[in-house]
Write a structure and sequence with these properties.
289 residues; alpha+beta; 6-stranded antiparallel β-sheet; 4-stranded antiparallel β-sheet; 7 helices; 10 strands; 47% helix; elongated
Length: 289
Amino acid sequence: MRRPRAYEATEALAGVEALDGPADAISGFVRKTIPGGPVKDALSGSWLGHALHPLLTDVPIGLWTSALTLDWVGGRSGEAAADRLIALGVGAALPTALSGYTDWADSTVGNEAVKRVGIVHAASNITAVTLFAGSWVARKRGARGTGKLLALAAGSALGAGGFLGGHLSYAEGIGVDQTAFEEPEGDWHDALAEGDLVEGTPALAEVDGVAVMLVREGGETFALSARCAHRGGPLHEGTIEDGCVRCPWHDSVFRLRDGSLVHGPSAYPQPAWETRTHEGRIEVRPAAE
């Protein structure tokens, strides 16, 4: 079955190498300007339990959609409300954009499709914000007809940006828990020989189709899924400190004992595994939730 033309167009967009220059510059600037810390955690949704950006997008989209509706079916009595809704949407776009930029910037390294589609997604939304702002200015100057037409054009740009944003989330998996589809059996599984695990040095094992990181610290053996829930980074290549592991890609920190999130940018905890030693072998099984 042939894929929809919109999907094919997006796939073609992902192959446009000319987008790499500006995308690399902008993503590098974002990573430098919003480094790991409380602000990045807040924008990433570490405090919320899932990515913040999709939740924030509902606010400007809802405000602007309501304004467009009032423009064309609200009559004269709806004009003042439509103007306020447009202004509120422009204001709400700033935190929404910041959360989206930090999610995207973390995903561009080594992922050309996300880098290229993401920069066009951002450009479409910037165009929408600019046109809505222009619509508000035109209304305040008494050119309501021009304002309504600018708002319609802004809605079209917003729709294009929304389609590309959906592609990034649903086709490319940006912002989702990278461990969500790990479904190992609940029984004990052989992981590796006890002698192969060195104190303080992570080891990697393949367990029922899932990559598992094992660590011995303070005489105890801990195990977490090795694919970071944030962007799929290799936790077994991270650093072990104070009973935690730090992801080498974006510095998310998880507790070894239970996989709980110490700080982001991950918005999700890390799946933990129980461990035991049996006849010189370390065995693991998924920890009960």
